[in-house]
Amino acid sequence: MSWNARTDPSGFTVRWSDEAASAYRAAGYWRDETLTDVARRACREAPERLLLIEGDRRVTRAEAWEAASRLAAFFLSRGLEPGDVVSFQLPNWTEAVVIALAARMCGLVLNPIPPIYRESEVSYILQDCRSKLAFVPQVFRKHDHLRMLAGLRSQLPSLRDVVVVRGDGKDAVGWGQALSLAPAGDGVLPAIDPAAAMVVMYTSGTTGRPKGVLHNHHGYDYRVRSMAEAWSIGPADVVFMPSPVTHITGAYWAFDMPWASGATSVLLDVWSADEGIDCIEKNRCTVTGGATPFLRQLLDTAVRRPAAMASLRLFFCGGTTVSADLIREAAAAYPSCMFFRAYGSTEMPTTTLGIRDRAQADLGAETDGEVVPPTEVRIVDASSGAPIADGEEGEILVRGPEQFLGYLHPEDNVGAFDEDGYFRMGDLGRRVHRRYLVITGRKKDIIIRSGENISPKEVEDVLATHAAVADVAIVAMPSRETGEKACAFVVLRPGQTIDLAEIRRFVERAGLARQKCPEHLVVVDELPRVPSGKVSKDVLRVRAKAIAEAGDAVHRPRAQ
């Protein structure tokens, strides 16, 4: 397949292959419709079906459709045209779902911004994507978002309007005002090309500046339908989604899945394990998922009230390192629920679809999931790019109908794809059982000690099973003697202690080579994480380098 650059209605330059597009359309992976078409059909079929739950709020299909139609009328009244960018920095509120549908009605490009971002990140993103309108809460978690954005307006020449959600402000349009116009009917809404860009979502920024990731309507539609089919998501399901709607996982399950599958989505704006369990129990949720910390905290908290999660039938786990022992522990505690690991990225979402029935439970714990056609995976030698045999570790490359359109800045695409259009995930892994992946680490995370490559994930997985260890991340630390050495950042369980000698004994008892043992230990209260739940290893690398430069050869861990 050949890939070329073309200009999208947004004005952004995107990667495009006529050959791939024709093949995906012919096979039915890409359909000539958008979420607007899916939602309109769903409203006609069952307008009073419950679409969303947030606390005591209940929103039906008909209510969401009318609110979105009114907001679409507001967009049109402000002169927004297909391809213009609309941003929102909202928590998991029902208004975000309305914004997402209204933007698609008008062919706008949606730009989610995590609520934890502050002036530096918000200013950069709004300028970078040339956003013309932004939605913010007035105050959320004690931060005045409206005041922050007011202070940035002079730096944002493209930004025409700010809409405040769940608040008021003299310098912004109120949510009620934005919904005050008559609903936009089909006759005034523009025709939308499903191949056009519909979202620009910025990477978590674990290294360097965040990069804008462009997806079109086709890719989102295909991926949501494939997940619903693989996991039999339907009208009987109630989905609890703790992942932020400003992250691609949360966006799929809050914005698209309720319309596409008939399921109801339950939103929670501020995460806590107790609140999460309350949501699951109160709403009899059947499906949920999230990064490792969500599952770990739910299991630890649910020990006091195990019946609260009895309604769950499916829990997918990903976004960061997931240990096989954690999945097995969850499955043992809740045998009626299918727990499994899944794998993907903002650029190539849900590269694997985990498992599809309980007969595959071992594979759900031991692998990062099944690669389901038409998604294609290549595993190549990380240095030469040559193909390698199944079972051998190599760099993971992926392509498929859900693949992103490229980065917002074309120069960021350089080196990100191979000549056949496969995206370089940046991860190392191996193929097992013909179609399952096991992720072994990040390509850039490799520690080169005296010429030997060490995968941190392999050692992290072992240390995660230690009784004293609640969380662990290992990064490279500069070493005068060996070039690099492994530095372990460890979060201890309450009342526990650990030292390097014990870590070495534990790693060696697990059968790993002595050279893989961490040579430096730092005990921390928590690991830094990006909104998706991934550990910010760039932050830890900077800290490890500073420790090495300061000559702090031995760190004295403390008890917690």
Radius of gyration: 24 Å
Q: What gross morphology would you assign?
A: globular
In quaternary terms, these chains amount to single chain
Fraction of helical residues: 25-40%
Estimate the mean pLDDT confidence.
Answer: 92
Overall number of strands: 27
Strands of the biggest beta sheet: in what spatial order?
Answer: 4-3-15-14-16-17-18
From the helix content, strand content and strand pairing, which structural class follows? alpha/beta
Contiguous low-pLDDT stretches (5 residues minimum) are: 553-560
Question: Count of helices?
Answer: 16
Strand content: 15-25%
Characterize the main sheet. Answer: 7 strands, mixed
End-to-end separation in angstroms reads 56 Å
Description of the molecule:
The protein is α/β, with parallel strands linked by helices and 560 residues long. It is built from 16 helices and 27 strands. The strands form 8 sheets. A 7-stranded mixed β-sheet has the order 4-3-15-14-16-17-18, with helices on both faces. Strands 6-5-7-10-11 form a 5-stranded parallel β-sheet, with helices on both faces. Strand 25 (469-479) and strand 26 form a beta hairpin. Helix 8 (217-230) packs across helix 9 (248-261) and helix 10 (273-283) packs across helix 11 (292-302). It is globular and about 70 Å long. The model is unreliable at 553-560 (pLDDT under 50).
